[in-house]
Structures are given as C-alpha cells and as structure tokens.
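As described in the Methods, two query proteins were run sequentially through the folding procedure within a single session, without resetting any intermediate state between them. The first query and its resulting structure tokens are shown here.
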Amino acid sequence: MERQFRINWTLLVEEAKQRRIELKLTQQQLALLADVSTPTISRFENGKKDIQLSSIFHILKVLGMTDQRTLHFPNPDPIYLPDRMVVRFWGQDGDKKIQFEISSEALDDHFNGQSKDKLKIFKAHQARIEHEARRKYLANSTTSNESILIKTSDL
C-alpha cells in the first residue's frame, strides 16, 4: 500500500494570493485575521518556504482553503450484507452520519478473509479499514447514493 502526498507549493501560493484578492483583503488585513505578521504574508505570497507550518495553516484557514471535516467512527455498527457481499459500517462527521461499505473481495484480498466470518475480519482490521474510509471520504469519493465503497483496488 503506497501512499503519496505532495503539495505543489507554487500553485498553493498562487491560489492563496488569488483568494486574498477575490476577498478584497490587503496583506495587512489578512495578516490581522490570520494572526501573523504582514511580512509573513509577503514572504508567503512571494513563494518563500521558510514560514512556520502553523502560520501557513492560519493563512489558508482564513482564506477558506482548509478542510475542516473530521470523520470519526464512534459506533461503526458493522453488518455483513451477503446479498451485496459487503460489510456496511458507519462514520460520523459532526451531525452527519456517513455510510461506508467494504467489499468481501477487499477483505479476502487484503486481510486473508477467504472462507472466514467477514465481520470478524472487519473487526480485526478495523483501524486500517477506517483509515482508508477516512481517506476516501476526505477525497469526496462517494457513490451515487452518497455512500463510500472500499474496493480491493483502494487498499
């Protein structure tokens, strides 16, 4: 399972600068709202990389460029649906309840689930499955019915 996370710094900075301009904020106003110095805003908009990550996060948050969703699995309540060959479970983002499913094929291929109780396999590997569910949720990878299906190719 290979994970790659890359940031295109030039595009990020340019998008942030354009957002500031669209919001009709001066660098000074943005600095005040983000609780950073005006020179920090200037260095950021000039593509300098010697800025604290916390300062960058504050700037991006003010500009509406951060994802504030938080997905938890307080009561996943997994059930196996043999007709669909999936384990269905639930996540929570604030007041929103989100339906997830993981295919039997994914459980078989990645968690040695052949001829075994799918719920036991799910529970034994729940942390990794929830990690993938979170990744797909934050990437907006929903199906037509707004649920999220984890397939063998996702793991």
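Immediately afterward, the second query was submitted; its sequence and tokens are:
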Amino acid sequence: MTDSPRVAKTKAALVSALLELWAERPVADISVREIARVAGVNHGLVHRHFGSKDGLVREAARVVGERFQTPVSEASLSHVVAQVERAPELARVIARCCLDGPHDALSLAVPPAEDLEELVAPIRPLLAALGLGDDVDPHVVNALSIAAVLGWHLYRPLLEGLALPEDADAQLARFVERVDALARGPR
C-alpha cells in the first residue's frame, strides 16, 4: 500500500530531521522528541510511521544508501564523488554509523550483494593491466575508492595541512574521470 502524500511528507521530514541531527552526533544521543521537533511534527508520529526510533534509523540508513546508489549500468566513482559533493552530510552520517552504530544498519546503505559483482567487473581489467589481477581483489579496490572519496570530505581539515594545492578538488575530479574512463575501457 502506498502512503498518502501527507504521510509520505511526514516520513520524509522525520528522515531528513534525523539525518541532519545524525550528521552532528551519535544517533544514541538523539531523542525521538528532538527528531520530531526538528521535523515539525508530533513525536508520536515516529512510532506510528516507523514503529520505533530504530525503525526510523534503519529507514534513514536505507535512504542514505539509496542516494548513493545508481543503476549498475551508470555506476562510477564520479557518481560517488558527485553525491558526496551534493550532500556532504551523508558522508558524516555514514561515518557516525561506522563509529557509533548501529553497525547492522550499514548493510542498508550499500548496494545489494547481487549488484556488487557487476559493480566491480570494470575494475578487473584495470587490475590485470597493472599486473595485479591475481594479487588484488577488485572488491578491495572498490572499497578503497569509496573510502577515499568519503575520507576526502570527512578529513578535509587534516588534508589541508598536507600542503594541498588550491586546485586539489579539480585534480581529484580529473583523476576520478580518468579512473572511470579506464574502467569503461575503449569504446
């Protein structure tokens, strides 16, 4: 059954409020009343629409994953970079979930297992061309790439201390474009 527009709007407001608060502190430190206040709704609606705070947390984690995911045919490192640039708070929410939990909610923020093989497929020829095909699993490279993109945003104050040039973001964009082009292969 599809939610009415009013219910959908209320749910979206609650998820948005939680994500806003979660980007700043652990979910354990955020009350249902505070989430509802930020969303501009009655706190009882959290329980009505999500069953519990945990249900709302899981829905928020799913929404974060959905924002990062794209059809497998269009997946690229550039897509991840663009998503984090559009909504840097998502990187903070993922970091908070990694650090503070709930850790099992992270499974809702990653692509389904059946999509992973297709997502890493373009990495295999790159590893082979580098002579690493038998030594490095493409899932490791995929994970490292995602961690690097998230870290670029999360650790920016630290990275600034590493003498980054003024055009560091532009250089990152060129690097990511090149990696994506190599992964796509000759056309």
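The two ends are 44 Å apart (CA to CA). We note this only descriptively and draw no conclusion about the first query from it.
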